[in-house]
Every structure is written in C-alpha cells, then in structure tokens.
Predict the structure.
Amino acid sequence: MTLVLASASPRRRELLDRAGIRFEVRPADVDESVLPGEPARRYAARVAAAKAEAARGTRPEAWILAADTVVVVGEDEILGKPASAADAAAMLARLAGRTHVVMTATVLVGPGAEARRLVETEVDFRPLESAEIDSYAAAGEWRGKAGGYAAQGQAAAFIVAIRGSYTNVVGLPLAETLADLARLGVAAPRYA
C-alpha cells in the first residue's frame, strides 16, 4: 500500500523516516486562514481534513496522512506561523514565562477507512529576556514554525516542562500516528 504524506514539513518527514515508515511526499496547498470565531481545535481539525482531501484528489487509491499543528495561548488564541522576525519575537514574548498548548490534528484516510485524532501537549516556557527573544528571532529558526519556535532546535532552551507528546510539539504525534497506521493495516514501524 502506498502512504502519502500531505505535508511539506521536514520535521514530519524526519519523524516518519526514523520510525522506518515508507511514504511519498505530496504537500497539499490549502487555505490555512482561521475563520472568524473558530476555536483552535476545530481549526486544526478542519485544516488537516482539507489537506487530506486535497492530496486524496491526486492519489485516490493511496492512503493519505495529513496533519496541522497549532500553538494556543490564553483563551484559545492561535499563534500561527510568523511572517517576520518581528512577528516571531512578539509570539515568543506572549509565550515567555507561561504555559501554552500545542495541538496537532491528524487525518489518515484511505480506501474505505479513516482515522482522525487531535493530540494536545502542554508546554511551559521559562521567562525570557528581550535580548534573548530578539537574538532567537534574528537567527531565523522560527521560519515555518507554529508559535515561532522549534522545540527540537535552539528553542529547547526555553522549555522547562512538556506534559504529553514531545513529537506532537515537533509537528506529528508519532506514537498515536503509528498506532493509527497499524490499526488500519497501512504500515508498521521498521527500526534499523
């Protein structure tokens, strides 16, 4: 069976590669705008489903895996991917010294079956100095990252605690995704 990852994320590719999953990459181009008043959980699920549907249109015989990750702070405020270093710095300032939630919605759809999930992980950031935020933003690691940081990169120094799936914070809840792949008979991990 062919598994198609409907994502351009190098982190998702790396996580699946490390688990020995064979797959093709076919990024899905969908509108990721938040609808007015849309809650974060609904937003992530809607975008992941749209990515799966877009990819399925090009490969109807294949299994499609799509995901969308969002960072949520406060009362359901979604922090998307920053457009600039200034946006990234503003996001980090919002996250500094507090707890936020990383949510990833996954959709696995194929011939006659599907699995949908939403995985949430709490992340605690330590307080950050303005100079530290500016230095991180200037380094550019924030590019393409929800919330403006990469837990697997230099921003690991900002994190004091993670409650839940670490790989979810990276961009794909791996244990849960592998369970769905196995349950539907799509793929099983092969560790070398």
